[in-house]
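As a warm-up, study this chain.
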Amino acid sequence: MSFVQAEFLGFFALVFSLYWAIPSLRGQNRLLLGASYLFYGWIHPWLMALLGAITLANYVAGRAIEHRREAGDRVVALTLVVSIGVLCAFKYFGWFVDAFSAVLPESVRILQVGLPLGLSFYTFHNLAYTIDVNRGRVRVERSLETYLLYGSYFPQLVAGPVERPSNMLPQFNSPRRFSLDAARSGLGLALWGAFKKIVLADTISPFVDMLFQHPDPSWAMVWAGALGFTIQALADFSGYTDIARGTSRMLGIELMKNFDHPYLAATPMEFWQRWHISFSTWLRDYVYLPAC
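Now compare it with the structure written out below.
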């Protein structure tokens, strides 16, 4: 399911109504967990098994690190190999089939495996937990239900933000009460995101495609296409993120800001500090400067 599908309006209205009617934290979390898997498996139910497998692998890794701290680095390495291996298998299977079609059997050549929606986002999201547990930055989450919710929370499941366990797990473990101000703020943010995604990005997209596909474009067409694409890219990605943050805020859970006026940046470095903030900081914290 996508935020911009008509079905999502009914889905979220039902989840929102039931969620705030449930008095217990555990009941709210269970509802969100069920809703998250329904959201992800709406079109292709088998995707729920993949999401569950990635999430369970990291949950088990966290518990293993808790019981054998001296083996933490090996557990993290194994979890990285499995998680990134699954991601690469889905991402590059089509390329592999095309490149070696001449020597592959027919049964393999006709197999069409696309990249599951959101796989990279929830893979990195779950890996952050395992790595942080090994570094001692977060406590092991003993509740399987709570961790499954952390790994599958539907507002940020498909396109981020790529959240941190230090931000999400305390929120899932803390009582939540309905706030009219938060609901209004979240609704406004979600509507603004929908405007950017549907009215701006989706409207501009056909014209940008037409300009880029023109066999002999003029300089004016080239510049118009480039400008249109910059608007489309930001409106599309940030719009979807704003819907995620807005709907989550309506549920009493705050997601991190993912875009901060990137086109106002004065330098390339500043641009990447403002564009897809959750992922650029994930790379900083877990790849480039892992000891910081």
